Every structure is written in C-alpha cells, then in structure tokens.
Amino acid sequence: MFLVDSALATADWDGTLGAIENVLKRADAEVVTIRKWSERKLAYDVDHKSRGTYILSYFNADGRRVAGIEKDVQLSEKIMRVLILGTEKRPPELIERDIAGLPQEESSEAAPERGSGEERPGRPEQPVQPPREAAAPSDGKAEEEAGEKENAEP
Questions:
Q1: Rounded to an integer, what distance in angstroms lies between the CA atom of residue 31 and that of residue 68?
Q2: CATH top-level class of 2-100
C-alpha cells in the first residue's frame, strides 16, 4: 500500500504511478496489479499534507528487497509512506477480489456498529476497572500522627 499526496495524484496520475512502478522496478519486483484504492482525509498531517490517496499494489519480490523499497520511498518526493505486507496467509479468493477491484463481502459475523448495544458472540463484555492509585512510600510518621489525633481528647 502506497500513500501519495491527493493533489499530486490528481494533477499527475501517470507520473505518480510511474514513481511507484520505478521503485518496484528497482527492487526487481514483478507487479501483479496496481490501482487506486481510496482517497481520504488523513488522521494527522503527513509531509504537511492533510489528504492522501492510497494506492494498492500486489507484487512479487524477494523478501530481502523490501528494505530497498522502503528506502526508495523515503527518498521519493512523490510517495509519502508505504506499508508492505506478505500475503502467504491471505486466502487466494480475497487476493483475487482485491486484484479485480471488487468490494469486500460483509460476513455474517461482522462487528456491530458502535453504540448499537450489541456485543459479538463469544466475547463477554468486560467491566472497566478504574485505575488504582499508587500508594506513596511511607516512613510511618503519617500513620503515627493520624493515630495520635484519633486518641487525643477534645
């Protein structure tokens, strides 16, 4: 997954894709697919940009080349961030859906919406414990004084 500036991606889409393909080419990666995934407002500014375009790419490369891809992204002026994950444990049908650009199917065990009051099956709600206050180390004088005050006559 590559993150690029939305304004730059809109103005020069071919140049943006070319920069990503160049980074992958330098790592001798075989590009399976590359496509726009989403454009979103970022949770925090990245390189002084508040919006970003995510570009999803599947590629085959030697695992030893991943560090080189990440280094090239750091040096790139067009690519703001990269996240590279292996797909060995991802089901092939989900990979095919991603490559084709099809929307994900919602499973029947999807998490409930926030505030719906429902909980997921098999996961009982845990009560929230308030944090414990740390007791300050004592030399015993405070307890002595408190005891003397209690025993003092009015």
A1: 16
A2: alpha beta
Please state the pTM of the whole predicted model: 0.63
Give the tokens for residue 55: 């570009």
Q: Measured between alpha carbons, how far is residue 34 from residues 14, 24, 27, 38, 126 in Å?
A: 12, 11, 16, 12, 42
d(CA 35, CA 62): 22
Q: Would you state the structure tokens that stand for residue 113, as one six-digit string?
A: 């919406």
Q: Which own/partner pairs from 90-95 qualify as long-range (CB within 8 Å, at least 24 positions apart)?
A: 95/58
How far is residue 5's CA from residue 49's CA, in Å, rounded to a whole number?
Answer: 7
Q: Determine the pLDDT at residue 112.
A: 45
Residue 139, pLDDT score: 57
Give the CA count within 13 Å in the CB-facing half-sphere of 42.
17
